[in-house]
Amino acid sequence: METKVEHPRLKELKFTLYRIFRNPSAIIGIILLAAFTLVALFAPHIAPPKYKHRPYMMPHKGYSMEPKAPSQQNFFGTTSGQYDIFYGVVWGTRTAFRIGIIVVLTAFVIGASFGIIAGYYGGWIDEIIMRVVDVFFAVPFTILAMAFVVRFGRGLDQIMIAMVLVVWRRYARVMRAGVLSVRNEDYILAAKSMGVSDIKIMLRHIFPNAVYPVMVIAFMDAGSIVITAAFLSFIGLGAPIGYADWGQMLAMARNYIVGPVGEPLKYWYTIFFPGSAMILFVLAWNLFGDAIRDAFDPKLRRK
Amino acid sequence: MTHILDIKDLVTNFYTYEGVVKALNKVSFHVNHGSTFGLVGESGCGKSVTVRSIMQIVQSPGVIEGGEIHFSPDSDNGETGIDLLKQTERFMQDLRGNKISMIFQEPNAALNPIMTIGEQIAESYVFHRKNQIIEKILGLDRTGENLFPKVSANPLFLPLYHLALHRPDAFLLELIKKVPFLRNWDRAVLHTAIEKSVELLATLGIPNPDKIVHQYPHNLSGGMKQRVVIAIALASEPVLLIADEATSNLDVTVQAQILDLLKDLKKKNIISSILLITHDLGVVNETCDRVGVMYAGNLCEVGKVTDLFENPKHPYTKALLDSVPKIRQIGDLKSIAGNVPNLVNPPLGCRFHPRCGHAMAKCKEVFPEMTIVDDDHEVACYLYH
Amino acid sequence: MEKILELKKLKKHYPIHGGVLRRQLNSVKALDGIDLTINRGECIGIVGESGCGKTTTGKAVIKLHKSTDGQIIYYPKAEPGGIDITRLSRSQVRKIGLTGKMQMVFQDPTTSLNPRMLIKNIIAEPMLAKGGFTAGQRHEKVLELLNLVGLTKDHLLRYPHEFSGGQRQRIAVARAIATNPELIVLDEPTSALDVSVQAQILNLLKKLKDEFNLTYIFITHHLLVVKYISTRIVVMYLGKIVETADTQSLFAHPLHPYTFALFSGIPSTDAKDISNRIVLKGDVPSPIDPPQGCRFHTRCPFSINLCEQVEPALEPAKDNLDHKVACHRKDEVPDLIQDVYKKDAVKNQFAFK
Fold first, then answer.
1. How far off is chain B from C178, nearest CA to CA, in Å?
2. Which of A56, A88, A171, C111 is the most buried (most CB within 10 A)?
3. Who among C103, C153, C156 is closest to A194 (CB)?
């Protein structure tokens, strides 16, 4: 019986894809994202790790502070401390995905849950949750990150926790706003009148109808989170020295941004490769997020 | 009787993802001077698209693809009038809200919540009659001769009024608009217009019009808002009023008031011709002189209201009348089996044939042309060919 | 006759909060003390304009909000003694096994069906909420329900937006009868539909009522629609019942001036019915501050001093005990209408033939 007609979810998906692919910038975003994903997946083949047990540590030959220009051995040259930039860029893709996805997913789960509960129940529960969110909004991010690093030591995990604590508050607010707009829809009332329990109403009726704005923000955040992480690495709060992380690589190239007198662009490769990787990564997520928004916007969706 | 509006073979299509929606399929009808024409049909039959096509405000995927819309504002000249579809956008902008006014179902959407009622009516009033008001303020008569200065405006600004009268697009006026305080030099115009709007509200039977003009839309009830919308539409003294489901959102007792008002306005000659769009057959019966019944983008039947309701010809009109509960309802309500067709792939031939009890082989192939069955009564059905 | 539901002095006041401390300033008196007994198997029509409290009544019965005061007593078949359900929460209702005994159909089927759920899940939802069905049973029942409301199994795997308004309302009706309820509240079920579709839905509802011995509370603003489907009619105005009678006698001898106005407000398609109508002046007063005395006196063409001071009680008419009216001049109204409007037509017009 179900074989005759195309399954409606498939049909919806096709329609969604059609909407996404109508948009040329979306295609650019998706191609970029796909390229990054491939690089991340095949990192061990593109740049075989030197230390099998610690693949994220960039290999380095020698300890000379001066970067070396691209050559046969180091396609992108080496940065300060003779770390291989090519290796760093390739494995840094994995780091970037890890940071972006883990932080955004965790924050999404926390923020969306609190947002739904606050919006659905309203009253005192709403008041308490939203005041907690306000408190979190009052915490300056850099100081929070510093505090974490001071307490728990330098490392990516610490700054990821710090970022989750900062990112979820926004999701909670947006989610709550979405819930408030669907909370009094007739189908919610209908479900209540049938005796459906609150949890099921939240999961089956409210979540699917209120989640899209949060999802769009989350997609865009997945890119910009990487910049934040890079900033923390740059000021020395993030990944340990030698870790394959774009921010870390920029930090190492700090003293070579401008070359010696007469040759200001001498060490261009130290900034150019990790920097453009980062820019393209953020761009990819932003274009993708835009496409998702266009595809899911209920106002634009039909007609 | 001459036609104020004469529509011939109007075709409007919407280009959507699912395909081309053939919203209007050669719709032809005319509205007489001094009469009320009702366009009825179920949702999606194209009645709103028809008026939007007349006003050329069809939304984005929609395109008017053919036909003629002749508009002749003067009743006495026997010419065919101007074809609105051949006019520029600039011309149409001038026409909308001036010669042809439109009122919609939702008064809240038509009223600006942060302007007083008086300002909103005055805006519409001033829009097309600024010069007339300025002449009045300056005490000039039509010939431009200075009779006696009848100054209600600030005398300092009088030269500006003269300038605005003779060279309305002068650079100085543009400049002054940008200067705080001075930009309100033409306040006297607005005040005169607000006085006018009080008069207008009074003719619409609104109690305490001088208080209402200083109130905001949220102070008013739904029925009162709809009256204000009508007042705004009438402020520019249009020759044709188009009411798109103007009473559908109102309660029955308030709807009765608004329908009475429309009838009254016609009696007092404040508005002569009305094109009324509605899904409610009862409303048509009570207010209209002639009526057109639409189904799935086609006009099925046009005629005098009394003829058409007592003696419907088209099977769809008959079925529609049968499905309305009546005061003297005997037996079961008859409903029309099936659903309105999807206009992306409308049925060939007569679009009603899949639901029609009298469908013949011919109905499935060729669309029936309108035929005259009676004096001023046309039907598009092979039963009468 | 067997009672199924009894409303006793039911009140619903929506508080209006204001100020920094969110103190209660006033309240919207949506429902201001109504008494109503509904018998098993009848279709009771509640008629009135927007803001009269008809939807609030329906929602109170179905427990979509907590009533401010009064009682709702439900007499299920199993327990003729009656259960006070006014203060029960949803989980308490489930505990005593009443989930799914009362259902509701909403006005606009475009908003009352979750746009992101498949039809089969939408119709199965009340069964899931009630519990005690296996997946197979649910599937079978869904098919049966679809057939019952005139849809086919091809429609199972579709989303609501793929249907027309009438079909959507059929789906909503199928969902409402999925758990074999005893009582269904129909909140303007045909107002958002076209006339030809309205007739389809009305006939469907009639058929289902006879087939499953359902009790309906039919809420509408359209008198002719309730006349077609209801056995008894309740006319409400500003949170109060102003007149109640069985359909025949209400249409034959309406006693309250407001009922008269409602009758004449309906635009009629019958060419002969156009006659001068009673057009009320003004609008419905705000339910925040309802008028003193009789609530209708501000718009009533026949109001006297007494009406402004004393609120009339709902009392039986002199010749028909089942016909109750809340009007001080109920015995004079028919004559008054004829006098004032000088129209014998009025009486004939509403004569029930």
1. 24
2. A88
3. C103
Task: Tell me what percent of chain B is helix, strand and coil, each rounded to the nearest 5.
Answer: 40, 20, 40
Task: Decide if pLDDT at A182 tops 80.
Answer: yes
Report the gap between the CA of B312 and the closest CA in chain A (Å): 36
Residues 193 to 252 of B: which have CB under 8 A from any C CB?
207, 221-224, 251-252
Q: Where are the beta strands (DSSP E) in chain B?
A: 3-16, 19-32, 36-40, 62-71, 82-83, 100-103, 240-244, 273-278, 290-295, 298-304, 371-374, 377-379
| Apex A184 CA angle, A178 and A189, nearest 5 | 130
Q: Show the low-confidence residues of chain C (pLDDT under 50).
A: 344-353
Classified as helix, coil or strand, A46 is helix
pTM exceeds 0.90: no
All partners of chain A with 3 or more CB pairs under 8 angstroms: B, C
In chain C, residues with a C-beta closer than 8 Å to the C-beta of B328 are 270, 353
Q: Are residues C227 and C268 in the same domain?
A: no
Tell me, letter by letter, the H, E, C secondary structure of B61-116.
CEEEEEEEEEECCCCCCCCCCEEHHHCCHHHHHHHECCCEEEECCCHHHHCCCCCC
pLDDT, position A64? 76
CATH number at C172 reads 3.40.50.300
Report the distance separating Cα B229 and Cα B224, nearest Å: 9
Q: Which two tokens stand for residue B49?
A: 């698209």
Query: Is C94 in Cβ contact with A204 (below 8 Å)?
Result: no
Q: Is C70 helix (H, G, I), strand (E, B) or coil?
A: strand
**And the tokens for A302?**
């039909």
Closest CA to A36 of A94, A84, A76, A75: A94
Q: Is A297 on the interface with C (CB under 8 A)?
A: no
Residue C343 and residue C276 in contact, taking contact as beta carbons nearer than 8 Å: yes
Q: Are residues C23 and C145 in the same domain?
A: yes
A301, pLDDT greater than 60:
no
- Whether A303 and chain B come into contact, CB under 8 Å, resolves to yes
Q: Is B171 on the interface with A (CB under 8 A)?
A: no
**CATH topology classification for A8-301:** MetI-like fold (1.10.3720)
Among chain A residues, CA nearest to B60: A303
Q: Compute the Cα dihedral for B200, B201, B204, B207 and give only its sign.
A: negative
Backbone angles phi, psi at A276, to 5 degrees: -70, -35
Instruction: For B262-290, write each residue's pLDDT tens digit.
Output: 888 888 888 889 999 998 888 898 889 99
Question: What's the complex ipTM?
Answer: 0.84
